[in-house]
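Weekly puzzle thread! Below is a chain. First person to post its structure in token form gets bragging rights.
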Amino acid sequence: MMNHRDRALAAMRGQPVDHIPFIARMDLWYSFHRNQGTLPHPYENSSLWDIQRDLGIGIFGFGAWDISFYRLIYHNVDITKEVGGGVTTTQYHTPYGTLTYGEKMAEELKEAAGTGARIEYPFKSAKDYDALQFLIEHTEVMENYDAYGEFVEEIGADGLALPFSGHLAAHQLMINFMGYQTFYYQLHDHPAQVEALIEALTDQQRQILKLAVDCPVQAIEVGANYDEQMTPPPVFDTFFAPFYREARQMLSAGDKIMVVHGDGEMKVLLSKLMECGVQVVEALTPKPMTSIDIAETRRLWKDRVAMWGGLASVVLTDAFSDEEFEGFMEDLFRAVAPGERFILGFGDNVPTDALFRRIQRAAQIWAELGGYPLPA
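Winning reply:
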């Protein structure tokens, strides 16, 4: 009998499995209820991983929040951090000026989320180009294999550690440094300077992927959080696809699998991901949360891209009846039958208001009906 880790890796590579893999994120739900003291019986004092082991759900070592295989070291940059009024303010002091980043946690997520909403971006106007260029060029990428290896060993065969190499260069500017609106204005007004930042960040990503080749796991998540409105096909073709092709070559040389975190409204980007060499789309979130149809996606990708997700997390809440939940699961299994290149997972996390009995029922359905091959 195969274990969770081996099933998932086999499904990613299109190899035979004895049962559909089930690797899922539950950290949002768990953190909220642990901090509120409302974890269900008999798990009041259990760790998340112990709960998942007991339920039979594979552990997901999600790289964006957990320890990483690399570290970023800043040289000739002083970093200060202040917390007050629910806002965390981080300042990067460079010879060319100070970049200030502000983050605030929503009240309803204080007990659950790992990061807050960005309320102030470091880059605010053209006067910040030199400071941001300096910050990027004076950031050293260093390996963190030993610490990450311990994390991988803790999960063992009970799940999968999936490290995150980071957002691609242009996306880092959009998400972390500028915000989408400022990025597009700056791209129009100062294209050469924006492209210089992108090239510096791309070089940083290459250094990270070189380390990923020797990382003690077999799959690496490269990039995340695409949306067809904010990163439409022409933008994706220009700023993302070329690096994905390069990344695929780099990772394949080390027999690593390239994964993308795909939890957004990105139906029109599904073919783009396939064409630029992505092997697995993780956190795939279908209707009713997006316009993505699982059966259509299966027909599109065929045997070229593995699908990880499919279970829209909203159906775990009381917004849907038990009958609707059961019907959703039946339709999902029918859509992916016979089940090759498919890993069952939540899209993209179990929400704080999920019904625990639904989580249990999802695990039960998987155990009882998830044997390979699934009936058509």
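Puzzle host: Confirmed. Bonus trivia for everyone else. The first strand starts at residue 23 and ends at 24.
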